[in-house]
Amino acid sequence: EPEVTQTPSHQVTQMGQEVILRCVPISNHLYFYWYRQILGQKVEFLVSFYNNEISEKSEIFDDQFSVERPDGSNFTLKIRSTKLEDSAMYFCATERERTRDTQYFGPGTRLTVL
Amino acid sequence: QQQVKQSPQSLIVQKGGISIINCAYENTAFDYFPWYQQFPGKGPALLIAIRPDVSEKKEGRFTISFNKSAKQFSLHIMDSQPGDSATYFCAASKIGNTGKLIFGQGTTLQVKP
What we know:
The complex is a heterodimer of chains A (114) and B (113). With 114 residues, chain A is an all-beta fold. Chain A is built from no helices and eleven strands. Chain A has strands at residues 5-7, 10-13, 19-24, 31-37, 43-50, 53-57, 65-68, 75-79, 88-95, 104-105, 109-113. Chain B contains no helices and eleven strands. In chain B, 34% of the residues are buried. With 113 residues, chain B is mainly β. The radius of gyration of chain B is 13 Å and the shape is globular. Chain B has strands at residues 4-7, 10-14, 19-25, 33-38, 45-50, 56-59, 62-67, 72-77, 86-92, 102-103, 107-112. In chain B, strand 4 (33-38) and strand 5 form a beta hairpin. The A-B interface holds A 4, 31, 33, 35, 41-45, 48, 50, 55-56, 58, 91, 93, 95, 98, 100-108 and B 32, 34, 36, 41-46, 49, 89, 91, 93, 95, 97-106.
């Protein structure tokens, strides 16, 4: 069964440093999402991406965040200057069509900001 | 108006029992209601989903009941098994939107053998 993969599985960084989280979507999927989950809390939407453009972003997704699909395969989330409160599990999700019958989630990247 | 409220926060059920998790929403524009199952260290996985044109959907031991007038939906797990022990999230979304899922707070289910 095809699956979404994410790297790294765990990233530890110092406050103020830049991090890039990577996602490899399922091959024929066209819609991409980032969500985050602070430990013990609910999953929160960050951004949706289609046709190389952001479709929607949440209030969390401020100027410190950016997304891109640089090589047509990887889908990345960049945090320019990490804060302590960015510590969370970040999930990539992908979808083949806008029917939303299935958003497939990756296993997540645990980001720890010290 | 974008919130989805989920209860209970945690649930303990004996093997073979019925697990029931409830969700409520406010935004009547929502028209897609999935349930996700999450095991520790894993991403959420779609379990079952419903659209508001039906009041119930069943897949194996999992059933969603949907009450459009009350703006509530629930997940029933029949014959609960220890392997069902996980965190369950309800979610909601709007057709024609960007695909954004609004999640509930999650319910940690423990099924005792």
